[in-house]
Write a structure and sequence with these properties.
By secondary structure, this protein is mainly alpha-helical. The longest helix is centred in the N-terminal third of the chain and has 38 residues.
Length: 464
């Protein structure tokens, strides 16, 4: 028994050294980055699952309203998260380059730029919430629209809080401090769930309760993130005054990555938002089916999503050191790992479908639709998800932001939106057709990114 365990350890270490170690970093450093991010992603997705399940207890109208607004929130939040990603890339490259002073400046620049963008977006949405809801979801029932209005205004107020958390966590991941990033994320998300339990389950406040909870949690998370940065962290040496004096040259570097990615997120999530409009026209049951299936699909993608975040730091530091071969090697390993994780998680979770879907207490009429949508996605994502999401994260970390953004925008609108409308609405395939179009778009986009990765242009950008 002891001999077989020793052989297993030896073989495991051999493969870890072969595929996850190089001159820039070894497998211990990569695993130290990955596991906190994995736990963070598991908590985020798991807690969102619990939140969706809790709001489901308030009825189909409530879950439909929250899902509609969250599709808009994802569109908006990803704009400033994209700029935070630009900060992560610049921080990671300076870290790889060994320039600690510029790491600190990049961190301050990321927090300042992300906060200002989030504040502007939040104020804009609050000012125009009525016409926006009518434009996007006017065909929804009055009850759904009333709940959506409350949740949209409340979510917009909270944007500044989550922006600060995202910027700080992104910078910490860039320098390899994923444990600190995990801790800050957990504070915000666990507080959100606990407050939802109080406001929704015990006080029966429904959507209003969820709105209050999200604001308290996000601003408490922001306060903790800034406190950590100013009082606890011993490497970045950032003070409050640094957030108000950021060199323009540093902002340009961050925005060089962040702006194309933000534009991509606007068009990409704008397409998803338009797809949501298709789904709204299919009725409240279709909205609920999409909401529950999306939540469950997110659970299946947790490990792969953690890899897509980890690869930004890994590739960023490799490029910062000027080691392209390490970057190529790690990207290939991450792609295979992503598909392996998707396979294993799908095989483990699909047999428990009825137990998982039962968390949402869905109407019996939509359970079969949720099952078939989820099964289709669980199969198709194994070969396609990694090249569609992990690979562009790697290209972006090398500075290849413009190409990845243009590709994502074009494939989203040409395939997911147009094909989704044709299959879902014109051909009458409903929610199944919309999801089939989304899965098809993964394949097209992934093929283009693989072609780019095999060439040399993706790592030729001079960022630092």
């Amino acid at each position: 028994m002891a001999v077989s365990q020793a052989r297993l350890r030896t073989r495991t270490q051999f493969y870890l050294n072969k595929y996850l170690s190089g001159e820039s970093m070894d497998y211990r450093q990569i695993l130290a980055l990955f596991f906190p991010i994995l736990i963070d992603q598991a908590f985020i997705v798991g807690l969102n699952l619990v939140n969706t399940a809790m709001i489901s207890s308030s009825g189909v109208s409530a879950v439909s309203a929250v899902n509609m607004v969250d599709s808009l929130n994802i569109f908006l939040i990803n704009v400033f998260v994209a700029v935070a990603t630009g900060g992560t890339v610049v921080v990671a490259q300076y870290k790889g380059n060994g320039n600690s002073q510029m790491v600190s400046r990049a961190t301050a620049g990321s927090i300042t730029s992300v906060s200002m963008i989030a504040l502007g977006i939040g104020l804009l949405i609050i000012g125009f919430h009525n016409p926006l809801l009518q434009l996007l979801f006017g065909s929804a029932s009055p009850e759904v629209l009333d709940s959506a209005r409350i949740y949209l205004i409340g979510s917009s107020i909270s944007f500044l809080g989550i922006a600060i958390v995202q910027a700080v966590c992104g910078a910490l991941r860039g320098i390899g401090k994923s444990r600190a990033s995990l801790f800050l994320s957990l504070i915000m998300n666990i507080l959100y769930v606990l407050l939802n339990i109080l406001f929704i389950n015990y006080l029966n406040m429904g959507v209003m309760g969820m709105t209050i909870a999200i604001n308290i949690a996000r601003f408490a998370g922001a306060a903790c993130a800034l406190y950590y940065l100013f009082k606890i962290d011993e490497t970045l040496h950032i003070r409050i005054r640094h957030l108000f004096h950021v060199p323009i040259a540093m902002l340009r570097k961050i925005l060089f990555i962040g702006v194309p990615f933000a534009a991509e997120q606007m068009f990409f999530n704008g397409g998803k938002l338009l797809t949501q409009v298709f789904i709204v026209s299919l009725g409240t049951y279709a909205i609920a089916t999409n909401a529950i299936a999306s939540s469950l699909a997110g659970v299946f993608q947790i490990p792969a999503a953690a890899l897509s975040l980890t690869v930004v730091t890994v590739v960023g530091q490799c490029i910062g050191r000027g080691n392209v071969e390490d970057a190529r090697k790690f990207v290939r390993s991450f792609l295979w790992l992503g598909s392996l994780f998707l396979t294993v998680v799908g095989l483990v979770l699909m047999p428990f479908f009825h137990l998982l879907v039962g968390l949402f207490s869905p109407p019996a009429e939509i359970v079969d639709d949720i099952f078939w949508v989820l099964l289709m996605t669980a199969i198709i994502q194994i070969p396609l998800w990694s090249v569609s999401f992990i690979l562009p994260s790697a290209l972006r970390a090398a500075g290849d932001a413009r190409f990845t953004s243009i590709t994502s925008m074009l494939t989203m609108w040409l395939f997911r939106v147009i094909l989704g409308y044709i299959l879902g609405i014109t051909l009458g395939m409903g929610i199944f057709g919309v999801w089939l179009a989304m899965n098809s778009e993964w394949g097209v986009r992934g093929a283009i990114f693989m072609w780019r990765f095999r060439g040399k242009k993706w790592y030729k950008h001079k960022l630092i």
